[in-house]
Amino acid sequence: MQLKPLFRPESIAVIGASDKPTPGRRVIATLERLGYAGRVYPVNPNYTSLLNRPCYASPTELPEAPDIGVFCLGHERVLPAFIAAAERGMKAAVIFDGGFAEYGAEGRALQDRIAAICREHGIALCGPNCMGVLSPHHKSSSYLQELRDPTGLAGNVGIISHSGGLCLSLLTDTRRYGFSHIVSAGNEAAVTASAYLEYLAEDADTQIIGGFIETIREPERFVAALDRAAALDKPVVLLKVGKSERARRAVVTHTAGEAGDPAAISELLRAHRAIEVDDLVQLTEMLAVLQTPKRPRGRRIGIVMSSGGVAELILDVAEAACLQIPPLTPAQKSALEAVTGLITGDGNPCDAWGSGTFARNLPAALEMFDASPEYDIIVFARDNLDDQPFDMPQTAMTYLDLFAAHAAKSAKPHYLLATRPGIMDRDFVAYLRERGVAVVGGLREGLGALDLLGRHAN
Question: Model pTM?
C-alpha cells in the first residue's frame, strides 16, 4: 500500500463531520487555517450542506474516491462506514477512536476485520486509536487537534509517535524547529512505525526524524529503514519506552503492543546508528542540536561566556555527567589573556569578560577554540528571554552578530546555550536559525545533548 495519500492527500473525506465542536469540525477548521488546496468532502447523513460545503450522506455518494477518509466516529459505528468508503475506492484512512485491540478480544476482532479490509483494498490506515497525520509543507491534515496558528509550523523534523499526547507536547513549541510531518501511529493495524520510517527517510521535506516508540512490530523492516536514513544522512532520534515492568504492562493497554527487551532494543538501535534518548527533554534538545548542518567530529566542547560563577557550575555539571570540556593549554590561556585580561580557572569554560570589552574579547575566545584541534564543538553561553527587565536587546544582538559571523566561517558547529531549559528570546532564535546556528537549553540538558551527538559521531 502507498503512504503518499496519508501524507499528501489531494482529497479528504471527513466522515462524521459536524457543525458542532467535534473532531469532524476541528479537522475541517485546521484544513482551512493551513490553506489546504485540495478537496474536502464532509460526510454526515444529517446534513445536506456543512461549513459552506456540500455534505454527503454516505461515502458511497462521494463525487470521487477520496485519497483519505478521516473517521470521526465512535468505534462501534466505524465498520459500516469503513466498508462503504473502501468500496468507493478510498486510498488511505485515519481512525481516531479507541476501543480496538487495546480493549481485549472483542476490540481485537474489530481491528482485525478492518485490517483485513485494508489489505484487500490496499488502504493505508493510520490507527486506530490515534491522532492522525499532520503535513505542514503540503498544508494537509487528518489530525485530531484543531490548529490555531500555522506560523512556524513547517520545518525539517518528521515525528513518528505511538503517543498522541507526546505529539501535542512537541507541537507547543516551534521556536527552534518546525515539522515536515507528524504521525500519531496508534495501534498500527495496517501501517507500522517501520513503514512510516521508510517514508520519512525518503521524504524531501524531512531532514531529521524523531520518534516516540512503544513497540517495534516489524524489526527487520525497522532496522532496514534506520540504515536507509543513515545512508541518506538523516539522523534518527528515538525515545523508546518500556524499560520498567510497569511501563511494559502499560504499553499493552495503550496501543496493544509488546515493548520488548529494553537492553536488546538499545543495542539494536545503536548498531543501526539511531540516537536513543531517555526522556522528552533530551528528545527535544537533540532535535534542536541537529538544526545546524555542521556535525561535530567528537565530544570535546569549548565554551565562551561572561560569568566566572556559571563557568564553575558547568565544570561541576560536566564532571557529574562525564562531559568532555578540555582545559586550554597554558600557552593558549596566556595568549588569550594578552587580549582579554585575566581568565579565571583553566580557561574552559572561558569567562571572556576579562577587561570588560566583551565585544573584542568574544571573537578572540571563539577563535582560540576554533583554531585548536582539541575542540570539536563551540558554545556561547548566554541567557536572553522575551521582554526581560534588564539588558538592552541591541547589546545582546551585537554579541550574537559576532557569534554568528564566527560560526559562518568555521568548520565546527556552533551553538548558543541558555543556562536553563526554555530560556530564549524568540527573535534571537530566529536570527540564529537563519544563519545555521542552533540554540540549546539547560546546562545538563543542552550540554548533554551536544555530548550525545559527539558520541554518536564517534
Answer: 0.94
